[in-house]
Amino acid sequence: MALTNFVKSIRNIMRNDAGINGDAQRIEQIAWMLFLKVYDEKENDWEFNEDNYQSFIPENCRWRNWAKDDGTGEALTADALLQFVNGTLFPTLKELEVTPETPMRSAIVRATFQDANQYMKDGVLLRQVINVIDSLDLSSYEESHAFGEIYESILKEMQSAGSAGEFYTPRALTDFMAEIIQPRVGERVADFACGTGGFLTSWLKALDKQVTTAEERELYARSVYGIEKKQFPYMLCVTNMLLHDIDSPKVYHGNSLTKDVLNYTDDDKFDVILMNPPYGGNEKNDVKRHFPSDMASSETADLFMVVIQYRLAKNGRAAVILPDGFLFGTDNAKLAIKERLLRKFNLHTIIRLPGSIFAPYTSIATNILFFDNEAEGFSTKDTWFYRMDMPEGYKHFSKTKPMLLDHCQPMKDWWTNRQEIIDAETGDEKSRCFSAQELLDLGLNFDQCKFPKEDEEVLRPEELLRQYHEKRTALDAKIDLTLSEIQKMLGVDI
Fold first, then answer.
1. Residue 470's closest CA among 388, 366, 386?
2. In this structure, are residues 228 and 147 in contact, taking their beta carbons and an 8 Å threshold?
3. CA distances from 79 to 130, 131, 310 (A)
4. 95-98 contacts: CB < 8 A, separation 24 or more?
5. Residue 160 CA to chain centroid, in angstroms?
6. Cβ partners under 8 Å of residue 402, min gap 6
7. Which of 121, 136, 155, 191 has the most CB within a 10 Å radius?
8. For the chain, how big is the Rg over CA atoms in Å?
9. What is the pTM for the complete model shown?
């Protein structure tokens, strides 16, 4: 089957199944089958390269022994297939025994299926979907790598199934950040809310260009680390790593916010951190207690910034996407986090991103913060701000006109030749350098080189409600900042 028809074919089949209700269930249904197909292909490699290889999956549950249809009419289908998948396959894979000694490439099978779901109710349609997936020839180098592109399209479809604050980061943006961070062989990268693995795959792509020896290839394979709280994106991420030849991906199903940050040792730290933390969520007190009291924010993105600060190794580098609210927020926790960022790290660059980066799923404005954990006692001296304007011919990014890597070229050019820029038409600052003391004197307001006000567009009611809550939070923060400045001017302590 032509790879371009892969997703379309499966979608058309699943539309006829009464058990599939919407995009979220359809994609999750595809995900566990893709994982087993890809894992089976990896097992072919392991069997070829290793003497006495033993599969962690019981023989009757291996893809090759129940999913393949050899055309003889003996393949499981209809009620027999449903009975096997629901009554044998899922219970078996969910209950696989995993111990601390279990290799990662084996342990990921149980972790992947721990909270997975099988939604289809028509065994004939299920057989048709399985046949489409099994038709992929992943043993072919060309088709396997071509399927990597198809897999990207599957991951993008997650956007429509996501909830507030969980958006697929455009590949152009993850590639740009990975390239700018300049990976080096032997370094390890981490994403503590890795989703489907976009940052990890961009890191691997950038690092791959430097690998020339078998030893370096081994370091490459051990260079990524991820944690994902939700089962569905975790499953997609593990499959993504297998497709990128990471046979034992150190990707864990868990919550990065549930460990006391003061207990992290050097072994828990990483050379590079690339992230787009979840934002818009609120954490309960049992999560906040894992953080120093002055930085125990209720906002998820703030807490991830604390985790990043405590898990970035000495001489490490970080690039993190954060919403505007972090830049101008004036609550005590945000101020403490930002002050620590200036005093303990080198916050050297903040890039303002257009609000439509994540269009059409949200218009919340975001930013990339680049900072280093340099020598002991080092603190920020200067912070550069740069505004990424829309490329010529674009009013907004959209599903049909997404962000492309070429759109990052002006940022790359500016990065290597930094200079302050004033917009000739509006007189607004597009780029400017602030000293750390200037930012402290501004009350830790990082909302600099902002975008000119744009005309509003007509949106769906649910998106309007989401934006209302986002903008109300942002407005409250700005009001608090203004009142604080007035108090200072009047010398009043309220």
1. 366
2. no
3. 15, 16, 53
4. 96/56, 96/57
5. 15
6. 170, 172
7. 191
8. 24
9. 0.85
